[in-house]
Amino acid sequence: MTITPVEIWLVVGIIFILIEFSKLPGIGFLFLGLGAMSSSVIFYFYPEIQNYQVASVGFSSLAWFLVLWWPLKAFVYAKNKNLGKDYFDIVGMQVEVALEDIKPGSIGQVYWSGTIMNAQLSSKEKVARVGDKLYVLEAKGNILICSHNTKSNLK
Questions:
Q1: Keywords assigned by UniProt (predicted)?
Q2: Do 73 and 9 share a structural domain?
Q3: For residue range 94-105, what is the model confidence (pLDDT) as tens digits?
Q4: Is position 113 within any domain?
Q5: Which of 26, 51, 77 is where one domain is finished?
Q6: Which residue, 67, 72, 85, 135, shows the most beta carbons closer than 10 Å to its own?
């Protein structure tokens, strides 16, 4: 029993799609997976094209990218009503106090998504100690306004 290019590219396409939805979302494996699966269908009906497998997968992936990019982008960001205002809808997310305590009224620093960002406590907050978890109430420029309150108590 021999394995044909049709079967190989079908399996490769399924693996790419599984990787996209489980391990590395947003990298583009969806387009590569759809391109590989489309190419396997093309190879099934037109076996003479099998001499150009890599080019076929590349062009099929490009075609899927061109067809799906804007609809997928609109779908992913449709829930975000304030696209132009703040960072990536950071409001409501949890951050961790970094480097030194943040006193009310002063600007300190927090870790968010592996990055150190400027933060300030909202009014009537107690001192936030290093390692404390805070929640972002709003973003004003490059300063996050944070609170000790849980997500359910956000404005």
A1: Membrane, Transmembrane, Transmembrane helix
A2: yes
A3: 888 888 888 887
A4: yes
A5: 77
A6: 135
